[in-house]
Amino acid sequence: MEKKDHINHVDAWTSLRSFTNARIALGRTGVSVPIEEALQFKMAHANARDAVFSHFEKEQIFTALQLFQQPVFFLRSSATDRHVYLQRPDLGRRLNEKSINKLNNFKSKGYDICICIADGLSSTAVNMHAVNLLLLLVPMLREQKISIAPFCIVEQGRVAVSDETGNLLKVKLSVILIGERPGLTAADSMSAYLTYNPSVGLTDESRNCISNIRPEGMSYATAADKIFYMITESIRLKISGVHLKDNIKAIS
Asked: Which residues of this UniProt protein bind adenosylcob(III)alamin (predicted)?
């Protein structure tokens, strides 16, 4: 006679796990989480911590950007290292003096947009996804004759660092691709933030965000279409943030 297992309980939602990476239907062993799920949780937590401190592969990104045959600037925020970056978010929003001088010496005559690539809270995300997205987005922009300032690779950067960068480059719209805060189901989520008429001191209501750009989230193709739509609409209407709506589905 087969002995019934009264200890291990399988959750009724187990079949739904194939549709999501969310931590659902974990089951239980007695009153505890099964050991396999407990270990997976620890692994996810370790991956998230690693993503925050992962190496920003800026040289490889620089090399890949040469395909577009336009200048690339290496910039840094005022945060001197990773620990300062985490403890002083305000310093990550401003360029350091050397970077400011570099952009001033460039003497920009004005562009439609600038594209920044910053490590943010997950270098892993931009290392994996930034160039793949730009391979789709940049040709779309060039086809519409949207002028692009030199690419800016920003180390220890927060979202708002693109405001100062865009202002110094005299652009109509700043775009920043940045690694988002890692979660327990995604350590490689990248977002794109768009700000019209960028200047120091703007806050989040002035921006639009396209988030969770990665193969398991929003695909590169979908993200490129959305970003392109938001860029063209922002420039046409001369607005961004809460005043600019994503109506791409309504016109598709």
From this structure: 159, 180, 209
